[in-house]
From TrEMBL:
<keyword id="KW-0479">Metal-binding</keyword>
<dbReference type="InterPro" id="IPR002933">
    <property type="entry name" value="Peptidase_M20"/>
</dbReference>
<dbReference type="InterPro" id="IPR050072">
    <property type="entry name" value="Peptidase_M20A"/>
</dbReference>
<feature type="domain" description="Peptidase M20 dimerisation">
    <location>
        <begin position="226"/>
        <end position="327"/>
    </location>
</feature>
<dbReference type="Pfam" id="PF07687">
    <property type="entry name" value="M20_dimer"/>
</dbReference>
<dbReference type="Pfam" id="PF01546">
    <property type="entry name" value="Peptidase_M20"/>
</dbReference>
<dbReference type="InterPro" id="IPR036264">
    <property type="entry name" value="Bact_exopeptidase_dim_dom"/>
</dbReference>
<keyword id="KW-0378">Hydrolase</keyword>
<dbReference type="InterPro" id="IPR011650">
    <property type="entry name" value="Peptidase_M20_dimer"/>
</dbReference>
<protein>
    <submittedName>
        <fullName>M20/M25/M40 family metallo-hydrolase</fullName>
    </submittedName>
</protein>
Length: 436
């Protein structure tokens, strides 16, 4: 998902919440920070090694910009992230890690070993963009602004990840926990979080804590996952001439009934409780105005922060599909019954951790330390998977300012972008422990 469009203007920098379409953002909230975490972050930031690391981030800025541009110019359409994955892997390798591999689904996984290695902390950004093959991804410059599809979402995250790794290495910082730097595939659309799903399903290493970089600015903290279920439904029948074969069951008529049954009941269902939404986004099929179609299909998207509400809406949808099938078959005058094919094309589970969770507190304390107003929000990001499994996870911004995510006019501006890298590292070091 990762539209970076919810903008909350504070002193500076700008906050963006990933995964929230313009005007449809879940309510964002201020978050209270406990003193213990304020102290922890300011102690960390005052450490001489961390100060050195921050200086390195500044020194690295021209290189970070080059990395950002060169990664953006490697297309990474949905399901075709390999070329970018290979480039990102070699950049991580050059920056210096202990082990590096591409996993079976195409994620880039780089391990920077900790001194005890008793815990594993993952920080990831996603490799894929929403743009199809053939999209012009050449970066254009307009004053200080970089323009290209994918420049913000999430190529900035990849560049920040690299810069963070380099700064850690240059300052020779050791962590207690192992840190995995990961470039994930399949975050967007029909990718259906397949990269992060695999990461949390693999058995090579357990993950104790997860930080996703997605979105820009530094104040936004996603600690609640908007779950979604998506279906492609197709009614299938023999099809025939509109006059000559009149009386055959008509797939379009069934589809129209299904949408009507569903939306009537869904409309009532979502009137109360946690925000729960539905949208039939695409319909199609048919060959001619004077032909009974042999196929009629739709694609629907349903979302909620609440797993129970999502399951409830899902049941309403599946009932409507069956009811419409029966209704259309019962009025046919001749021919075979229609059949229906229901295919789940998206399943992003919901879940959340409270604002009092140490990881959320650390992200909030870090954002505040760096001059932003921390705000918690619900969204659909790579955090959905760990949050659903009860594993602490936040999605935070990677710095700078951006707009036009998922559009050809996407842009990114290095307005205090360094703060995003500092932010990631402070949260990461708090989670992984600074080893002495
Ligand atoms: Zn994204």
């Amino acid at each position: 998902m990762s539209l970076l469009q919810k903008v909350v203007r504070v002193a500076a920098p700008v906050l963006f919440f990933p995964g929230i379409a313009n005007g449809q953002q879940a309510p964002a909230g201020r978050i209270g920070i406990q003193k213990e975490y304020v102290n922890e972050i300011s102690r960390l930031a005052g450490d001489p090694l961390v100060k050195k690391m921050f200086t390195e981030i500044t020194r690295l800025e021209p290189e970070t910009r080059r990395d950002h541009i060169s990664l953006t110019e490697i297309p990474a359409p949905p399901f075709k992230e390999t070329e970018r994955a290979k480039a990102f892997a070699s950049m991580l390798g050059a920056a210096g890690v202990d082990t590096l591999w591409l996993d079976p689904v195409g994620n880039v996984v780089a391990l920077r070993r900790g001194t005890s290695g008793k815990r594993n902390v993952v920080v990831d950004a996603h490799l894929d963009t929403v743009f199809p093959e053939g999209t012009d991804v050449k970066v254009k410059f307009s004053g200080d602004t970089l323009k290209a599809p994918g420049i913000g979402d999430d190529t900035r995250g990849l560049a920040a990840l690299l810069a963070g790794l380099k700064a850690l290495n240059r300052a020779a910082i050791k962590t207690d926990a192992n840190v995995y730097f990961v470039g994930t595939v399949g975050e967007e659309g029909l990718g259906d979080l397949r990269g992060i799903k695999h990461l949390f399903a693999q058995k090579t290493f357990p993950i104790h804590s997860h930080i996703a970089l997605d979105g820009v600015g530094i104040g936004g903290i996603v600690n609640s996952a908007v779950g979604s279920i998506r279906y492609r439904v197709a009614y299938l029948g023999p099809g025939g001439h509109s006059y000559g074969a009149f009386g055959l069951a008509n797939p379009h008529h069934a589809l129209a009934k299904a949408i009507a049954y569903f939306t009537d009941e869904a409309n009532e269902f979502v009137k109360s409780g946690v925000k729960t939404t539905y949208n039939v986004g695409m319909i199609g099929g048919g060959t001619s105005v004077n032909a009974i179609p042999f196929e009629s299909w739709l694609e629907v998207d349903m979302r909620s922060e609440s797993p129970e509400r999502l399951a409830g809406l899902d049941a309403i949808f599946r009932n409507a599909v069956e009811k419409a099938l029966k209704a259309e078959n019962s009025v046919k005058r001749m021919g075979e019954d229609l059949t229906v094919k229901l295919e789940k094309v998206g399943d992003r589970p919901s879940g959340s951790i409270p604002g009092t969770n140490p990881l959320v507190q650390r992200a909030a304390a870090s954002a505040a330390h760096l001059g932003a107003v921390p705000m918690v929000a619900a969204s659909s990001t790579n955090s959905n998977i760990p949050l659903n499994q009860g594993i602490p996870s936040v999605t935070i911004g990677s710095g700078g300012k951006a707009g036009g995510a998922h559009s050809l006019d996407e842009w990114w501006l290095n307005e205090n972008g360094e703060a995003g890298i500092q932010h990631m590292l402070l949260v990461l070091l708090a989670e992984a422990g600074l080893a002495k």
